């Protein structure tokens, strides 16, 4: 499960946040748990930040640690509850890039999101909920088709109107990681995508 607010332990490093469940729940030894944690942190582009505490990480980095923590438990299905809602707009792309990479790798995910461009490009099935009930379900190219008249399409139109065209990232920006910025060891910014991890 990936939560909106990361739910990391503030007194543990990134590596310890990933490895603690492996030791306490899965029965891993300390060395084995650390090795697995480092593997998953590398997978989300954070290997060189393994020794940092949550207070030393950006919101996007914290969410990637949370994703690594979930992956370490070898889930068959991942549940994501608005994984980008607590992030600054400039940090959304790096998390969506990791989610895209997981989808490309065959991970089954159920995600609550308002990132409708991203859902349109990545989802195989969309459920639109209102007042706690599912009112529409179907493929993105049907529910989100321009002029379809679906409740989902109407909602998206209002959502984009509120954001304004100058604030709405394109699908290509979301999926290629063009919005994702990370900090290199020398303090400068660099772009990160999961297919070509930056030099952390």
UniProtKB/TrEMBL annotation:
This is ATP-binding cassette domain-containing protein. It holds the Pfam family ABC_tran. Gene3D superfamilies: P-loop containing nucleotide triphosphate hydrolases. It is found in: Cell membrane. Its main location: membrane. It comes from the Bacteria. It comes from Candidatus Bilophila faecipullorum. Residues 167-200 are annotated as: Disordered. Belongs to the ABC transporter superfamily. Keywords: ATP-binding, Cell membrane, Membrane, Nucleotide-binding, Transport. Residues 1-156 form the ABC transporter domain. The keyword ATP-binding applies. GO terms for molecular function: ATP binding; ATP hydrolysis activity. It is a peripheral membrane protein. One of its GO terms (cellular component) is plasma membrane.
């Amino acid at each position: 499960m990936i939560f909106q607010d990361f739910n990391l332990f503030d007194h543990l490093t990134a590596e310890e946040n990933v490895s603690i469940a492996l030791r306490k729940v899965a029965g891993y030894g300390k060395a084995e748990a650390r090795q697995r944690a480092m593997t998953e942190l590398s997978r989300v582009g954070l290997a060189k930040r393994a020794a940092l505490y949550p207070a030393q990480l950006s919101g996007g980095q914290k969410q990637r640690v949370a994703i690594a923590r979930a992956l370490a438990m070898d889930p068959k299905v991942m549940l994501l509850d608005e994984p980008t809602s607590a992030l600054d707009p400039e940090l959304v792309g790096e998390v969506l890039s990791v989610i895209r990479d997981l989808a490309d790798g065959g991970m089954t995910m159920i995600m609550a999101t308002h990132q409708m461009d991203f859902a349109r490009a990545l989802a195989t099935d969309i459920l639109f909920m209102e007042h706690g009930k599912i009112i529409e379900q179907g493929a993105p190219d049907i529910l989100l088709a321009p002029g379809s008249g679906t409740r989902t399409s109407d909602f998206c139109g209002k959502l984009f109107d509120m954001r304004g065209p100058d604030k709405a990232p394109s699908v290509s920006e979301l999926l290629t990681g063009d919005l994702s910025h990370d900090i290199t060891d020398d303090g400068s910014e660099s772009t990160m995508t999961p297919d070509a991890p930056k030099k952390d």
